[in-house]
Amino acid sequence: MGDTETDEQITVMVVDDHPMWRDAVARDLEGAGFTVVATADGVATAGRRAAATRPGVVLMDMQLPDGNGAAATAAVLEVSPDSRVLVLSASSERDDVLDAVKAGASGYLVKSASVEELLDAVRATAAGQAVFTPGLAGLVLGEYRRMSSAPADEQGPAVPQLTERETEVLRFVAKGLSAKQIATKLSLSHRTVENHVQATLRKLQLANRVELTRYAIEQGLE
């Protein structure tokens, strides 16, 4: 998605098992100019409709009749890997938040958020930013910091080492800055920044900037 993408160009799918809430959110999005391409009421329908419509952003509830939001997130991203999932849930429970992020969600917003907060979160998610209700980002960072400080035999496979410059660029990617904006911040050329981003993607075996952002959160890069 380009940095200048307008609301009309942002396609959204709303996944929630409550018809009134689902329809209300869809109306709010359409009223603000977004394009709602599908709605779904569960894990299975979310997967099928994501495959058919390839939405840019998926608003995902955590409590679904045939599974949870984490399972639905994984199902959506399996068939539409370029979609970005923003959880919109009544739950702010630690396990729900961490399960959603581990499944591939780009952010997590509680349903007490205002309509304007929701619309801003959809725009930010579409732009590749990680969006969390205040307090939840700290929870996620704290968990991954705890994991990273665990004894070596409790950790996963070794992560390739990034150069100091690659790490610096990654921090700005995690904040949602474009390559041009990062180039200005670091007094580098646009091409040099893109080269660093591509090198980092190759080293970490990641597919895109959303996955880079998630990696940065997991590693506690702020």
UniProtKB/TrEMBL annotation:
Q: Name one GO molecular function term.
A: DNA binding
User: Is Transport set as a keyword in this record?
Assistant: no
Identify the InterPro entries for this entry: CheY-like_superfamily, NreC/VraR/RcsB-like_REC, Sig_transdc_resp-reg_C-effctor, Sig_transdc_resp-reg_receiver, Tscrpt_reg_LuxR_C, WalR-like
Q: Which Gene3D superfamilies match?
A: 3.40.50.2300
Q: Which domain of life is it from?
A: Bacteria
The chain positions of domain Response regulatory read: 11-126
What's the protein called, per UniProt? Putative two-component response regulator
Question: Native species of this protein?
Answer: Rhodococcus wratislaviensis NBRC 100605
